[in-house]
Specification:
Blueprint lengths: L1 E8 L2 E12 L5 E7 L22 H34 L8 E5 L3 E2 L7 E7 L4 E3 L3 E6 L2 E6 H8 L5 E8 L2 E11 L2 E6 L2 E31 L4 E31 L5 E4 L6 E11 L2 E2 L5 E5 L3 E6 L2 E8 L8 E6 L12 E11 L2 E12 L58 E4 L9 E6 L2 E2 L41 E5 L4
Parallel strand pairs: 5-23, 10-20
Antiparallel strand pairs: 1-2, 1-27, 2-3, 4-6, 6-21, 7-11, 8-9, 8-22, 10-11, 12-20, 13-14, 13-16, 15-19, 16-17, 18-19, 22-23, 24-25, 25-26
Length: 498
């Protein structure tokens, strides 16, 4: 007969631990511990009426979950792989976005009149555009091209250059290298070296032999009496008493861990309790607090995790900031004129890299018969950049009002740009939700820096921490963590008939 034994300790229930009852030839019954699972050749009878199906051990729950997970992986890996390959092929292609736009001062032109207005380009967080990208403006059968660095220089922009992965509006552009964009900060996982002392408690079966005597009465033929008589003798029998005791085992565990890459230490014991004492955590020659790592037992293994990361400043994908900047260049800089034949034409403005369009905007213009001087400022349509406004002409003085007053293709030349902030001024940034900590921005040359010394959101690591700083711990995770402490023994045996 096989029976299951459960141990109740400090309100928690552990088990089952399986024992097999064996009857010796002399009638003595011995209990032998066979492990956490019943012998394959044995079948347990149905549980008694007072047995609750919910009384599964943590070990069996995790084992069932893992079996389902393995089946899922075998069934869905091929489909998932195909989807990922298709998605990667899609996102690596540059896709037109709302990066570039046009603002024409008029949509009605005379034949041969220089197109007038502005071409605008917006830079946001993580954006990094290749230095060899081109801005193209075309109408009719004419196209004017301007390198990105020349476009930014003509605008008087303060957009800096740097190196990184080319990126725009949440999409990779393909490739990396030198480009123009706004600097930001990125959280970078750091590999940590650690060591801890592990002590585990596990049940062990102890069998203790003992002797007992018994009387045996047999019928013996007595030749003297010439009949059968009863003869009683005393026999010494060795029996065995099996008990379950708790044993302990200690070892030093060393390894490396980083955010998203846990360290797994497997154990072969049926653990009922354990204790972990972190001895050291370090990276390079720097020592970190012991609570930088977390060690948890998942039913089979001890898993070490960490949410530790460091921030660095850079350009492109992954480098976040709260800064945006719009760059504007006068359309006249492209020296593109309206077609000679009256009619309606499409004006196309594109940002092109490596033969692919990153962003594009289109609008219609009308070419009609010329007029001498619409606004009466002394300049005809072919000379005046805005023949509907007499205060704007090649002979006007430039004023600091965000308009190209003198029709030279530049805006507010000679004007000092108003700084975003005062030199060395500081401003807090980031947030303090979850593992995130606030940082500080510093005003340098009238421009805010990135968010320095901040702990930024990271993907959830299912480590009991709010890694993505959304106020919810381990959202999206489905993990059973097992921890038992302060154990007192209360034993309950559930016996199954053989």
């Amino acid at each position: 007969m096989v029976y299951a034994k459960y141990i109740k300790r400090n309100g928690k229930r552990f088990g089952p631990y399986y024992y097999k009852s064996v009857r010796d030839k002399d009638g003595t019954v011995r209990n032998i511990y066979v492990g956490r699972t019943p012998p394959k050749a044995e079948k347990l009878r149905k549980p008694p009426a007072d047995f609750s199906p919910s009384r599964k051990s943590p070990h069996s729950v995790i084992s069932n979950a893992r079996t389902f997970h393995e089946q899922y992986k075998r069934s869905y890996v091929p489909v998932t792989l195909l989807v990922m390959v298709a998605l990667a092929a899609f996102i690596m292609q540059p896709v037109p976005t709302g990066l570039i736009s046009a603002d024409l001062q008029t949509v009605s032109y005379s034949p041969g009149e220089v197109l007038n207005g502005f071409v605008s380009m917006e830079f946001g967080p993580q954006d990094l555009l290749p230095t060899d990208a081109l801005v193209e403006v075309s109408v009719g059968n004419r196209t004017s091209r301007m390198p990105l660095d020349e476009f930014l220089s003509s605008s008087g922009s303060s957009v800096p250059s740097g190196s990184g992965t080319y990126y725009k509006s949440g999409r990779p552009l393909g490739g990396s290298g030198e480009g123009f964009g706004l600097p930001g900060v990125k959280s970078r996982p750091i590999t940590l070296d650690f060591s801890y002392n592990l002590t585990v408690m596990h049940p062990t079966a102890i069998t203790i032999p003992y002797n007992t005597t018994r009387e045996i009465t047999e019928e013996v033929f007595n030749e003297t009496l010439n009949r059968t008589v009863n003869v009683t003798t005393t026999q010494t029998v060795t029996l065995h008493n099996t008990t379950v005791e708790t044993a302990s085992y200690s070892e030093l565990v060393e390894g490396t861990v980083s955010a998203g890459s846990p360290h797994v230490h497997e154990t072969c014991f049926n653990i009922t309790d354990y204790s972990v004492s972190v001895l050291s955590v370090s990276t390079g020659n720097r020592t970190l607090p012991n609570d930088t790592i977390s060690v948890d037992f998942d039913g089979d293994s001890f898993v070490t995790t960490t949410g530790y990361s460091e921030t660095e400043e850079g350009f492109g994908e992954g480098y976040l900031s709260n800064r945006t900047e719009e760059v504007r260049v006068g359309m006249r800089t492209f020296n593109l004129t309206a077609p000679e034949e009256p009619g309606t034409y499409e004006l196309s403005i594109r940002l092109v890299y490596n033969g692919s369009t990153i962003s594009e905007t289109n609008m219609s213009i009308i070419v009609d018969q010329p007029f001498a001087d619409r606004d009466g400022d002394g300049y005809t349509i072919g000379e005046d950049c805005d023949d509907s406004n007499a205060s704007i002409s090649p002979g006007a003085n430039e004023t600091c009002d965000g308009i190209d007053n003198n029709c030279d293709g530049r805006i507010d030349e000679g004007c000092e740009p108003e700084p975003e902030c005062a030199e060395n001024q500081t401003m807090p940034c980031g947030n303090s939700t979850g593992i995130c900590t606030e940082g500080m921005m510093i005003c340098i040359n009238g421009t805010w820096s990135g968010c320095l010394n901040a702990t930024l959101p990271a993907p959830e690591a299912c480590d009991g921490l709010d890694n993505d700083c959304d106020g919810v711990v381990d959202d999206g995770c489905n993990i059973t963590n097992i921890t038992e402490t302060n154990i007192t023994v209360e034993e309950k045996v559930i016996q199954y008939g053989a």
